[in-house]
Structures are given as structure tokens and as C-alpha cells.
Structure of Aminotransferase class III-fold pyridoxal phosphate-dependent enzyme:
Amino acid sequence: MKLFDVYPLFDVNIVKGEGCRVWDDRGQEYLDLYGGHAVISIGHCHPHYINKVGEQMGRLGFYSNSVINKLQAELAGRLGRISGYDDYQLFLINSGAEANENALKLASFSNGRTRILSAEKAFHGRTSLAVEATANPNIIAPVNANGHVTYLPLNDLAAWEAELQKGDVCACIIECIQGVGGIKLATEEFAQGLQAACRRNGTVLICDEIQCGYGRSGKFFAHQWLGIRPDIITVAKGIANGFPVGAVLISPEFTPKYGQLGTTFGGNHLACAAALAVLDVMESSDLVENARHTGEYLMTRLKDLQQSQPHITDVRGRGLMIGIELDIPQKPIRERLVYEQHVFTGCTGTNLLRLLPPLCFTEDMADEFIEKLTNVL
């Protein structure tokens, strides 16, 4: 059997990581500004994380959700406190797509409606309704194209209000910083107006914080920059630093019922231990503030570089979620960064480099990256 070939790959075999650096099987070191697609939040192979996950594995790795798991309750309490959502409820699953599936399902259960509003260039996952809410026809199979979703321009409040006034919208789902969509930021005016319109029309507001949340923006959630409080929040990626964990944070206005949602692996003992270790490190090392401070420093350095490098047409983002727009294709730039400068970055579209480093990224590392990017440009 061979692998199902759906991923274009760099010819690099990464075998080791530490902090914001990784090494390949030849011993070559790389600076990591990709974080495995925003998954590595506290840094590769953090010793506290390794210890906590190892200790839990030595006790119990998994048992089903048919018994009490006190680690789930501990995680809910800790996450509520650190995020500012003490009064919300937590449902644990395995991935971001699952988080959005369950969020949309809950919304439909609550108001009996079936239509979803999603933003143009949105990305919400690759399963059933999550992929239908993703504005990319190339990854929506015919079986997923069920006419549930209307796509609207991000920040065009009038367009969203006009659809909401029809009275049939189940949920609005937005990324307050679009990742795959090109590091496009929702505005405060749009977000607050959308929340008010959802409330007027009995529609559930869902913030997809899977990539932009969990401290990456310099606040715990990106929507907290915008002064809103959504009905449902979805998280994954950085929640457990590489262990597959996703979660739905649910307003107290939603009443759970037995059998309404379910999962086999979600919230297992090992997953909870990994997620708790991440919160330990985020708090002890003040990583949310570091993301804000270091992100501002990196953005300033990039904007300064833009003045001398005409190929950079825009720099945008928040915290350690930054887009560098180019007037040339990003692919050869990214390849030279990997093979010549030994730096990993993300990308999106034809012309955008996407920076998603671990939240322990430092100013010295930012300076190192600027030097290496300058060499390539």
C-alpha cells in the first residue's frame, strides 16, 4: 500500500523539534514560523508538556465518555478562567472541523433553521457541513453541496443584515482573522453590528477561533479585540500543542440533552492532560502577552522592510498571525526560505506568506527571520 497522494511536500524529513526550531534527518536546523499550521502553541517538545503527557500515559491513556473523567472538568474550569468565559459550557472533540460541525448542529437544534451565513474566502474544515461553509468549491464534493450556505463579503455589514432580516438564518460563522483567506481582519464595526443583528433575528453567532484563537492574536481570542461575545466559540490547533484536540465553548443559553452530541475519542484522558499542560505553560510564561508584544515587533520590522523591498505590497495581521503580501508568487520565495535560508513559513493563495510561529517566538528570532527574508527578496 502507498499513501494517498493529496499533499504537495517539501523534500525535508523533520525528525526533531525544540521551542521555535526543528531539525531534519540530516541534522539541518530550521527556524519555524509555521508551527505546523498554527498547531504548536507553547513550542516544540516543551519539557513540562512532555512530563505531563508522559505521566498521564503511565496512568491511563484512554477510557470512554461513559465514566467520570475529572480531567475534563479541570480543563473546563481552567479554560473558562483564562479565556474569560467562566459561565460557558465545554464540549471536547478531536479537530477543528468537528468543532464547527458540532457548533452548527447546536445552532440548528436551538432554532430549528437550516441556512448558514459564511464569509467569502472562509475556511471552516473539510467535513460535511464544515466544508460546505468553506468558500472553496474545489474541496466541496457534490454530496456536501446541499444549499445550506450563503457566502457574503467579510465586513459588508449591510449584506449580512439583509440576509438576516429574511428570518431563516440558523447561524452566522466567522473567523475574526481569516487564515486561509489571507489574514483578512474583521472590523469592530462589522463584528458588533453582526452580533446585534443576530440577536434581533434569533440567529446564533459562531466565532471560529481554530487558527486565530488560543492566544495567537495577542488576546486569548481574536474576537476579544472587537468587543463581542459570540454564542458559540470553536477551538482546536493550538489547544494541545500537537495532540489532536478540538472544543466547542457554548453559551449558558444552550441546554444540553443526553445523546445530543457525542464522540468516541474526544476529551480522553491523554488529550486533557496535553491541553492542561498547554494552559500551564501559557500562564506561567505569559505567552498571550508575548504573542502581542513580539507580534507587534515583527510587524514593525516587516513594515520597515516593505519600504526597501518593493515586492512586499502589504503586511497585516495581529499578534503572531501575520500575512506578507507580495507582488510575485510566494511559492519560489517560500521554497528558497526552506532550502536556502532554512526557515519554514506558511502561505495562502498565490502571493501571501503566512506567519504562524509558536507563541514563545522572540524578538531575536524575528530579527533572524527579517535577515533571511531580506536575503531571499
Q: What stands out?
A: DSSP finds eleven helices and 17 strands in the chain. The chain has two domains: 47-284, 286-376. The first helix runs from residue 35 to 38.
